[in-house]
Amino acid sequence: MSSALVLGNLIGRLRAGAHIASGLTLSMIGQQALYNFVFSGPGQEILFRGLILSAISRWKGAVLAVVISSVLFGIMHARMGIAYVFWTAVIGGFYGYVAYKTGNVVGPMLIHGLYNFLFDFLLTS
């Protein structure tokens, strides 16, 4: 499900004229891939889906846990604007649902890392 969101977003952005950012070196791409797939995506998923979602779901149930962890995830991205807060909260809901249903955060970690790498670094409009 999360993969479909990333793929749909990728197709939509490519159709709208997105392209690979100019001036990138192999070193820059490698550094960003390492950052996004080792630190950024996994770090946020461990915090929001691993710790927060798990703790709240034991305390108040799965539905409220997904909602709260997703809203907090969205708020964490407030520097990007209110529309981005909403969008990341929705994506966080999908990540939370997948993590809760599978009992595993590895899938959301990988998809989150891929999303950040593609849309926050590699592609520009």
How would you describe what is shown here?
22% of the residues are buried. The chain has helices at 2-15, 26-60, 62-76, 82-102, 106-122, and strands at residues 19-20, 123-124. The model has no long low-confidence stretch (mean pLDDT 90). It has 5 helices and 2 strands. The longest helix has 35 residues, at 26-60.
Average pLDDT metric: 90
List the helices and strands in order: HEHHHHE
Give the helix tally. Answer: 5
What structural class do you assign from the helix and strand content? mainly alpha
Low-confidence stretches: none
- Hey, roughly how much beta strand do the residues contain? under 5%
> How far is the N terminus from the C terminus?
25 Å
Instruction: List the strand order in the largest sheet.
Output: 1-2
Q: How many discrete domains?
A: 1
How helix-rich are the residues, as a percent range?
over 70%
The biggest beta sheet reads: 2 strands, antiparallel
Q: Assign an overall shape.
A: globular
Number of strands: 2
| Radius of gyration computed on alpha carbons | 15 Å
Features:
single chain; 125 residues; mainly alpha; two-stranded antiparallel ribbon; 5 helices; 2 strands; 3% strand; globular
Quick gist of this model?
By secondary structure, the chain is mainly alpha-helical.
Topology:
Blueprint: H1 2-15, E1 19-20, H2 26-60, H3 62-76, H4 82-102, H5 106-122, E2 123-124
Antiparallel strand pairs: 1-2
Helix pairs in contact: 1-5, 2-3, 2-4, 2-5, 3-4, 4-5
